[in-house]
Amino acid sequence: MSLIHIRHVAIVGGTGTLGKHIVKELVDQGFQSLKAALTGEDAVVSAIASAATGPQQQKLADAAYAVGVKRFIPSEFGINTRQVQNLPIGKIVAGKTKLVDDLQKKAEENPFGFDLKAKKATIYDSGNEPFQTSNLGFIAKAVGSILKHPNETANRYILVASFQPTLNQILQILEDETGSKWAVENVSTQDLQKAGEEKLAKGDFSAFRELLRVHLYRDGEGHPVPADEKANNLLELPEEDLRGTIRKWVASAGTA
Question: Based on the domain organization, do 172 and 198 belong to the same domain?
């Protein structure tokens, strides 16, 4: 007789009065949480039935967002839910429209801490710590160039970067390009570190967001790539303009 080993458990109603206690207990006993199950996935496609697209689908979307899933396709197959919001049937699919609104709000968030719509910036520590960052197109060019330089790049850790700015430099450019003074919220990376470690201790890998900000922005981290170690020239990568990149971002949002 073969033994049955149960590792993954799906709980319907996991956010309810009883369900949330069952979820907690199963996680405490070593069963995999939804966030852990989605960690490493690039995309999630939800085909949940209309009657179950309230808290259940929201919980799925929240978990996907927390662990950095790149694309979430909600259960929006069938009628245009935007056209029935004021009809009786709209009450049944209200969870769908609420989720789409939430996803759109999440999509507008900027990982660097700059809210273009509200003209609000989050500055970590002094905001004067340089960090490395790159445009996606630049990274794609780097990958292609590496493959075209097989001998020069063989068995090497390749370091490239579009820019190595500080948060304050980005803020200054944003204020110039929008013609507005931005509100600033100052955040201590020490507090972020504590919050991230507390999450991690509970097995919550959304701590990556806090810990990444600490790694990038904490005063004295010293992560910029030294000029003599950057492979930009070796890979014949084009020079990129920080102000030009920010200007395109502002223009795409219809602000300038």
Answer: yes
Report pLDDT for 1. 45
Q: Do 62 and 95 fall into the same domain?
A: no
**What's the domain range around 94?**
78-254
Structural tokens at position 74: 């909600």
Q: pTM score, two decimals?
A: 0.60
In this predicted structure, what is the pLDDT of residue 247?
Answer: 92
- pLDDT attached to residue 109: 58
E-strand ranges in 69-216 read 71-73, 114-115, 120-124, 183-187
Q: How many residues does the chain have?
A: 256
Residues 138 and 99 in one domain: yes
Same domain, 134 and 200: yes
The separation between the first and the last C-alpha atoms of the chain, rounded to the nearest angstrom, is 70
Residues of the chain with pLDDT under 50: 1, 4, 255-256
Residue burial 126-142, b: 16+ Cβ < 10 Å; e: rest: ebebbbbbbeeebeebb
Distance separating alpha carbons of residues 24 and 26, to the nearest angstrom:
6
CB within 8 Å of 81: residues ≥ 6 apart = 90, 93, 96, 97, 100
Of residues 101, 173, 162, the one with CA closest to residue 132: 162
Same domain, 181 and 91: yes
